[in-house]
Amino acid sequence: MKIHATAIISGLALLISCTVVKPTLSCRISEFMCKSTGGCVQLDEYCDGKYDCPDRSDEPPSCTACNRTYYGEVGKSYRLAVKKLQKERPFLCHLSFTASGQEHGDFVELIFEEFRLGTLYLGECISGEMQILELGRPYVGGSWCGYGPTDGAAPAVYYSEAGTVTLTLRIPVSGLYTTLPFAFGLRFKFLDNRQASVRLGTAAEPKARGELVPGTHCSRNFYECYRKRCSLQSPNYPGMYPRNVTCRYTIRQKVVPKCKHAMVSVTQGRGSAVQQSHRSGGGSRGQQGPAAGIGNGTAIIRVNDMCSENEDRLVFHDGPSEEDPVLLRYCGGPGLPRVVASGPIMLVVFKSWVHNSPATFSWPPPVSRLRSFELDVRIAFVDSDSLDYAKGSVCEFTVNASATPKSRRGVLVSPRHAVPPNSTCTYRFQGLPDDRLWMYFESYGHRSTGHFLTFKPCPTRLRIWDGAGTLLGDHCDTPRLCEHIAATDASSSAMPNATRPKRPCTLDESYLSKSPSVILQVHSVLGTVLEPYGFRLHYEFVDSGAYDREIDGDACIMDYRVRESIDLAEPRNVFLYGRGGAKSLDCVYRLQAEPGYRLQIVVRNASFGSREHAPQPIARTVTGKYTCPPGDRGPRLVVREVFWRTVRVERGCFCQNFTESALGTQQVTFDTSSELVEIHFYVPGLGVTDDFANTYFSAHVRVLRWPACPRKQWVRGSGGEIELAYPPEAREDLHCRDVPWLLEARQGHSMFVQTWGRFLPVNSSAAAPCRTRNRILLYAVRPDVRLVGNVCPAEARDGRRDTLYMFSDEWTAFVPDDQQNPSFMVEFVAQEAGSMAFKWLEVSKPSKRVQTTSPSVRNQSGGGPHHGSGCAYGCPELEACISPTLWCDGHRNCPSGVDEADLECQTKWPSFKVLRSYGLPVVGLGLAGVVLAVLACFYCRREPEYKHYDEPEPATENTTRSCSTIAS
Description:
By secondary structure, the protein is mostly beta strands. It is 10% helix and 35% strand. The strands form 14 sheets. Strands 48, 49, 50, 51, 52, 53, 54, 55 and 56 form a 9-stranded mixed β-sheet that branches. Strands 15-16-18-24-21-22-20 form a 7-stranded mixed β-sheet, with no helix packed on it. Strands 4, 6, 11, 12 and 14 form a 5-stranded antiparallel β-sheet that branches.
């Protein structure tokens, strides 16, 4: 029995002990255990003014919610109210909230539904304050006071960064404001990280919040944000941030691709609240709009000098230090403009004032106050050699021109990065000594990002100076624009109505300097973050050295005195082309060789764009050089020799795109015989996009030593005869090789030329049937030089079988005396051994009545061979009159020789009887006459009387022929 009793007593003790221990094991850390009943209630139900425990142990006398640690569970909401019992004593209350992990959450959400503690006066807390301290974070000492939320506003929210947060409520006993009302009530929740999508992002798109700098409250470093989503957040985002904190956010981009330059960009974040079921307001007071981000629905922003020192502010520095230029100071407003640094590093400094009111962080916030913020970080890459960014701390850009096409023309855009307030961006253009700068704006504009409390006249000012000091433009608004150039050509038939450029930019829509240097400045008073400006500027260095329309006039003629080998190219003056406004390009290059030298022209290439002719090369006689279709006015490149200053002989013409390698050396090389050579480059019908990029040519000019021709081969007179041989034997023939002969008649007369050979087609090539490759070329000179006769020369003068006649053009139609003198030009093209000869006569039309004063008429009854021809002295076979000085001069001038066959010629010589009668005196006089005649003939052979162009002499019938002109 004793043992049984002992067992019963042990069982009862065990039962009692189990009953006592049971309440301790059943209550969670987030619950309060009732003392007598052992029931569990939530921690916020302790001392809430209601009896929640059956034994009323949750409401002991003089209880308070202060100096306690509160836990909770994820998904539940708790309320807490603090009451001050003794009004005459200092009040100090500590409230701790701990999220212990897992179902108890990772961080704490505090929603201040009622807050009346002290007052905020001139930025200082008086007669009461609240401080917040998080476990593991440095103490900063800031505090909140005043009252909030305001009527109709949502309460302020605080989200902890650490698992434990402690609120300290403090009211001093002394002071002027000891009678201020006190009220404090809040709701708190415990959230896990999965619910913090606004702060941390989602699993699919996490946010990189930077690396916390050890020993600081909130400073962070961001690296390589070009490949991840970097989010620059205020402390305790998206709720209210602590007071008296300084956060330094350093953004660095270390990895930069080759030939690129990185620029850090910061823009306003996407700004959203905690997820819908966990909004900051909660319950029926939760807001559907954003409860975080920068914005308050007003149109006023506070920036730069509008920010006072006792305000919360964000400061953006263009560099890693606070000594670097300040791009923007921002202390509140509807939105933060985009801020871009000029380099790969940006420092963003956030400072909060020591004291503030929770009402500042309620929704909607008061006007122009900085609330919690989230900024997105992006990295922009530009070409390292571009002018899209300033290379140094000063916003200066330099554009230097050189001989390369890339440096001669380009497009400038406004800086891609932000420019600090009260700063000037300067663009310096420097060209070559003969350059002028042409610039025109495709677009220009500046705008304000918001309304400011201050007005700045002319916030963006554009000025353009010529290098000579002349002000080309001064604009507070829009400069000259050439907007139509922004239109692009239709890229495909799918866009038939696409706009096309209709015309080039005029000088009224652009700026043209008078010197090779220009300075362009854009001054921004507010900085480009607040007053961004943007422009797209086209610039071009115009080479006016060879041709300047203001100096040289409309005729594009360029003169060169060539002393050494040079290269020629198309004029690089854009105003000669369609893109510069010209309808056609027509330029002449005049090349003057020094005495004793000749020029060799090698044309390397030419391009006429899309206006070239279809390939139809025509060889010019034996030279094989290309020529253009006669009478054609299309594009062409012509090489001409100029003889006697006015006679231009075309040596080659190109009217289609070509290169030297495609045509061959023979076709593009010109060995000239004149000291003056012209290259004529003509392209009509230029389009608005045409310039020297698609319309050009290139030629090389060599200088060859060659003695000047001693003969003046411009001859005038009654008639004469020329004989030439190849290879030349006499020195003057060698020096005058390839120089043509110009035969000129007097006004009212015509020119007749007789030669020996066979006529070939004028456009005959070297393959034409002829026993020799030599040619005699006959040119009509007036009004323009043109080939009228292509002769295959005969070996000898075979009588009439190979005799060729040719008259000048005016023979068939009489030319009045006021017209230019009739002329022929004869050229001997020698490519193998051979000779040529030709005669010329100055002839005129017979009169209608027969001249009866002719000696032959007087001495012959019935008339001679010229009787009835209408000429006193003439060639009947030509039906033309000749000069009397040619009659009976000892040379057969008429083709038939009639001028030497007349009986009158026989009476002019002394007979033997006369010689015997007068004896020795007559013989002596005769011998002396013979000697004089021989000397005269020798003199005529040595230097015939040819007309010189520079010193023209009036021709008379008795000045040219006392003997035949023989040049061989």
